[in-house]
Write a structure and sequence with these properties.
The chain is an all-alpha fold. Helices cover 65% and strands 0% of the residues. It contains seven helices and no strands.
Length: 172
């Protein structure tokens, strides 16, 4: 029977605390800045896909999918793909949505920036509603790119405070 391998052990208690702190600070900072500075200007600095990015950059820090190139490139390129699909096929949402996610995957694979939350970033560009649609291509940079940069800066700080953690594994 397939799937008979044992589950990997859980992480050390210290890693739990560092992962929690990173996610709390990273998502907290994006949310705070969004609500106090961006939303009053009809912008945002937080999108749902950042929750999944937080899991990667604060808890799965050794994963190739969590490295800076993947985090930033995955969100920005997927945001661009999502906006383009909405602009060209937005009158047929199911088509725009499926093209956005599938195109984002191919673009991330070609550019070696695979970051699974990027699929959600592309999808949000299509289904995010008028506020997101009104941003146009800016969406790929604010909130997607800028928020990813904030998550990265916090990941660099928090993940390297602990003596047993090192982030990133590589930059490019």
């Amino acid at each position: 029977m397939k799937g008979g391998a044992k589950s990997p052990p859980g992480g050390p208690a210290g890693d739990l605390l560092w992962s929690w702190a990173g996610a709390m600070i990273g998502i907290g900072l994006c949310s705070y800045l969004s609500s106090h500075y961006f939303e009053p200007r009809d912008l945002s600095l937080i999108i749902g896909s950042f929750g999944a990015s937080a899991v990667l950059v604060y808890a799965a820090i050794k994963s190739p999918l969590a490295q800076p190139r993947n985090l930033i490139g995955g969100h920005v390129l997927s945001g661009l793909a999502g906006v383009a699909c909405y602009q060209f096929f937005g009158s047929t949402i199911w088509l725009a949505a499926s093209l956005a996610v599938s195109s984002a995957i191919v673009i991330m694979l070609i550019t070696k920036t695979l970051h699974p939350p990027g699929g959600a970033t592309a999808l949000i560009a299509v289904i995010g509603g008028p506020k997101v649609h009104n941003l146009g291509y800016l969406y790929a940079f604010v909130p997607a790119g800028a928020g990813a940069v904030i998550l990265l800066v916090i990941a660099l700080l928090v993940n390297n405070l602990a003596t047993n953690r090192k982030y990133p594994e590589y930059w490019i």
